[in-house]
Amino acid sequence: MGASATKFLRRVASAPNAKGFFTSGSRSASNTKNGYLAPTDPVPPLPPMAVSDCMDHADSMETMSSGSSRGRSSRLPRNTLAPSSLKAGIPNGLGDGPGKVAFRRTYSSNSIKVGQVEVGPSSFSKLKLLGKGDVGRVYLVKEKKTSKLFAMKVLSKKEMIERKKIKRALTEQEILATANHPFIVTLYHSFQSDGYLYFCMEYCMGGEFFRALQSRPGKCLPEDGSRFYAAEVVAALEYLHLMGFIYRDLKPENILLHQSGHIMLSDFDLAKQSNEPGGMPALIHSDANGVPLIDTMSCTANFRTNSFVGTEGRHQYIAPEVINAQGHTAAVDWWTLGILIYEMIYATTPFKGQERNDTFANIRLLPVHFRDSPKVSSACKDCVTRLLDKNEKTRLGSKSGASEVKQHKWFTKINWGLLRNTQPPIIPSSSNGVDAVNFRQLKESRSLHFEDQILSVASSTPGTPGEEGGSPTQTGDLFGAFSSVTLHHDGES
């Protein structure tokens, strides 16, 4: 297959309705406007025929989303670096029922346009602090010109230099500037001042998925609800793997809820990509039904990384091969999916110990144990057990990636092509947006005044941040590789 075939496979297979796409003959009834194949379009034939012709007929994914200003700009070139971040609803577009939003958004490889940055820090009014971390904060902001709400992630250059996290910020920008998927947060602008990097993202009005779970009876979801959200996570991970990235940081705190209740993955600073280009998304055949499926593991080129990752407060999600410092592949994302499913159902993680080292010992040595209550199906137990296989080579998803996980019997009830048209189990509390009712109430210890920040242009001589935990490898502007751009998304007004 040529480059056009690869592009086509990445574009189609990353959609939630990839399962069943490669069926010959008449089109499937599940191929709706929510998927890449529209009911008015014929199913494109299999490669290696002229896939470039098929791309013109494969419709793009449309879904409900928030608005963004449109303007003249050039089309985003393939593999062009641009900005990073969050995704959610703008409060002026609630539809006529729960889980509905009155904006249409197009998801396809040609639906992002990029141009020179059209805004700066003074273009926004700061309304509320939504979250904070060791090198930055996330604010709810209002664009002065349009009165639209956004989430603004502001990273301190000083803190990033001191903590050697520059490369992480650049990685996050690369992913979010090129990603275009309904379950991954959307970036609209990225820019910098002398002291800060800014990611202007879609405001996820539903708040953190973790907080939503904590507010539910028993702090958990029934099995069907857990399966729904697990399916949306699988679709997002599939897309990231097709892009050649390992996510490495799946946990409820990094999942945001759109105002409709659908999930959005966020925080990509721990993601890793191989220095070597990944392979094409290969076609494989499922042993179960013979339907051709896509191997997403080939896209990460079996890349192994040795860096130890894991948030201090959520070390329960770390995979055994990471603890053992054996190096790890994209299979770590399937381990974390197993932990997430277990936590959604049982309101705790399966290997949690009294201390960090106890947890690590349990992860390495103990089999997963299922509690007597709540009752779950044998298929659910089998799926979680296989995802939590301590041997990464036999773990569910380790051979062909998301297609292997999608084919597990626990996901039989999932209509992958209708995920975005299905009412989610959790509908966030009604909000006018500004009240941020689905977020914790936080106070700023040190106030940042956007009006005082001057938009800056990166030096033409970028420095090299160096490897994770290392020092810059050359002099120059360490943030020269950060792109100040504005992105426009088709289907948003």
TrEMBL record:
Q: Name one GO molecular function term.
A: protein serine/threonine kinase activity
Identify the EC number(s).
2.7.11.1
Q: Specify the Protein kinase domain's residue ranges.
A: 124-411
| Skewed-composition ranges (Low complexity) | 459-473
The AGC-kinase C-terminal domain sits at: 412-493
The kind of enzyme this is, by top-level EC class, is transferase
Instruction: Write the protein's name.
Output: non-specific serine/threonine protein kinase
